[in-house]
Design brief:
The protein is an all-alpha fold. The protein contains 14 helices and no strands. It has 2 domains: 82 residues, no CATH class; 269 residues, no CATH class. Helix 3 packs across helix 5. The model has no long low-confidence stretch (mean pLDDT 83).
Length: 356
């Protein structure tokens, strides 16, 4: 971990601890004000608890040109980004993606799409619908390892995070509290409930909160659709394709639409917001992830609408390429932040429980 980033974050946290003006803004400040000294583990926990809403920066009287030159959102964003790279497994891949996120995402999607098209030229798989392009067994052989690898990688990373932040034994109450905060994006609502200042210092807005919710719930619906299709295939011997009034479609289509709308809005807000209040070196990686998630959702919807046309093999290749890229890159993209943030929320529930 980079010592200079933590030294600067420690300096700013100590000033914030003395001021306490922002105590009700989000979960960061009650946790920050409880500490007298800030260890690397404390700072890592605070950084991952921060949602970068930036309300504290615009309310702060000690920002530049004041001699204290506080920019807590940026300081915590840089520590947060460094912690993801430090805890990631394998470690070198995280650094590479954060520096070249958009390029790597595009190259990976195109590479896998070309590979799937090349497999198509070898001849029909002999099935129906999508399976006429690529057999079910081939899809399982390709995507099962691609699904299991990020789970293993993230599990190792979270274990490192938990040890690094001195996490304690987790109880059901900790999990329920953390999931409650994550479900309604409590920390993106601001201390007053009117939202945050992410895109405009003079305006409170819930736009970023709603966009995150659209992406999160859209992704969960799509995951549920995939799970429903798996159950239908193996438990009821009902292989794809499925009609509109089936669980995979009733869950997947709304989920895809929510993901498209959410990622478009996140990209718009990210382009509008001040880059100097975040980890500027990770901007490309974060935008690359948003665009990759957008492509996964959009290609899935187009594949459904064009499934009966001659464009189906091409759309299937693009969709499978984007999904495979998404899975393999998950531990090194912004997708990993959801797991770290949930871990930070659980750790914060432990902190609050210790005060009772």
């Amino acid at each position: 971990m980079q010592t200079d980033l933590r030294q600067e974050a420690r300096r700013q946290a100590e000033i914030c601890n003395a001021c306490r003006y922002c105590e009700g803004y989000c979960s960061v400040f009650p946790a920050l004000h409880q500490e007298r000294f800030f260890t690397d583990g404390n700072l890592t926990q605070l950084a991952n608890l921060c949602h970068n809403c930036r309300g504290c920066y615009y309310a702060c009287q000690y920002t530049a040109p004041h001699e204290f030159d506080l920019n807590l959102p940026m300081a915590l964003a840089e520590v947060r980004q460094d912690s993801w790279e430090s805890f990631a497994w394998p470690h070198p891949l995280a650094q590479i993606f954060q520096k070249n996120g958009v390029m790597i995402a595009v190259a990976t999607v195109l590479g896998f799409a070309v590979l799937f098209l090349a497999m198509r030229t070898l001849g029909s798989a002999g099935g129906e619908g999508f399976y006429a392009v690529l057999s079910h067994n081939a899809m399982v052989a390709i995507f099962l390892p691609a699904f299991l690898f990020p789970l293993l990688s993230i599990t190792i990373s979270l274990r490192r995070y938990w040890e690094g932040t001195a996490g304690k034994r987790i109880t059901l109450a900790h999990i329920v509290g953390a999931f409650g905060s994550a479900a309604n994006m409590k920390n993106l609502a601001g201390g007053h409930g009117d939202g945050c200042n992410f895109e405009d210092e003079d305006k409170f807005s819930n736009a970023r909160r709603l966009a995150h919710q659209a992406v999160m719930y859209g992704f969960l619906l799509c995951f549920a659709a995939t799970s429903a299709g798996t159950i239908l295939h193996y438990a009821f011997n009902m292989p794809a394709p499925y009609p509109l009034w089936s669980f995979p479609k009733l869950l997947g289509v709304p989920g895809g639409i929510l993901m498209v709308l959410g990622t478009v809005e996140l990209a718009r807000l990210k382009l509008k917001a001040d880059r100097n209040l975040g980890a500027s070196s990770a901007w490309g990686g974060e935008m690359g992830f948003v665009l990759l998630l957008f492509l996964v959702a959009l290609s899935g919807l187009l594949l459904y609408w064009l499934g009966g046309t001659q464009l189906m093999p091409l759309m299937l290749a693009i969709h499978l390429g984007s999904v495979l890229s998404f899975f393999l890159l998950t531990p090194y993209t912004k997708m990993a932040h959801g797991f770290y943030r949930l871990a930070a929320l659980i750790r914060d529930e432990q902190r609050k429980a210790a005060l009772e």
